[in-house]
Description:
The protein is mainly α and 133 residues long.
Amino acid sequence: MGSENLHEPWDVLSDDTKNIHRAIVSLMEELEAVDWYGQRAEACTDEELRAVLVHNKNEEIEHAMMNLEWIRRKVPEFAQNIDTYLNTSGPITEVEKATKAGGGGGAEDEAPAAKSGGRHDGSLGIGSLKGSV
Length: 133
């Protein structure tokens, strides 16, 4: 990966900057692992091994999201952009335009149905399983 190393001397950086760097590098590593496991699972010809690889990939996604959440909590600019771009349903490239035009564009500006994929009841949208065989 491109930026595992610091670009400035260690002793001139604050502890906050060093910790943010650690989290960013960890996020990069987790995303790289997601990619690797995904490729391995797709190429794998053994179903049982494929299941293990997919499980591992999903664990790496969890780790990546934990790092991203830590970054969001520590870096206000990340939090602001996460609020703007994540959990939206419109075209991604138009979210910024809507935000700059005063329309917000973040998840908080969307109708509840847009955030839940059109569902208002908070369900996963799979319907009732009663009576199915």
